[in-house]
Amino acid sequence: xxxxxxxxxxxxxxxxxxxxxxxxxxxxxxxxxxxxxxxxxxxxxxxxxxxxxxxxxxxxxxxxxxxxxxxxxxxxxxxxxxxxxxxxxxxxxxxxxxxxxxxxxxxxxxxxxxxxxxxxxxxxxxxxxxxxxxxxxxxxxxxxxxxxxxxxxxxxxxxxxxxxxxxxxxxxxxxxxxxxxxxxxxxxxxxxxxxxxxxxx
Length: 201
Prior knowledge:
Layout: H1 4-17, H2 32-44, H3 46-51, H4 58-70, H5 73-82, H6 93-112, H7 128-140, H8 142-150, E1 153-158, E2 162-166, E3 173-177, H9 180-187, E4 197-200
Parallel strand pairs: 1-3
Antiparallel strand pairs: 1-2, 3-4
């Protein structure tokens, strides 16, 4: 059975191939090509993410990034499709699922929902397996980070999946209702493009 991370990698590749290199994304300042480059670096050259900021190796890292970009959009998307090298930890399915299910889901939506004319009513439908995985992982990551960033106590409620509260006990309470994937987009800073209802306590 194909893992949720593998399914979402394929969805991301399909989304990237449906647009041009210059197409907008929900990642501020990033085109589709920028997003594809980010995924390739995260998959196979994580050293470049840090290296470009370091004084001694920064120029070399920036040249390596430019070489990847110069290969062209199609080549970058092909590398996204290929995934990480076999000797990388995330090539193992349990690690891939833990590291990449949310990453690929969010970035797929970053591409699709940023396109002109997109309507939430036309968003793609996801599997129940993926929805459960998103709820499980987001409860431990993005929901925690959203509460911390806003300095709020936030209850995330999703019918059929449950409720989880994150944030300082003494902080003002907020409730956010929606499907797990929509709550995840809201919590990851994409509130304007997510279908989530907010109730202030």
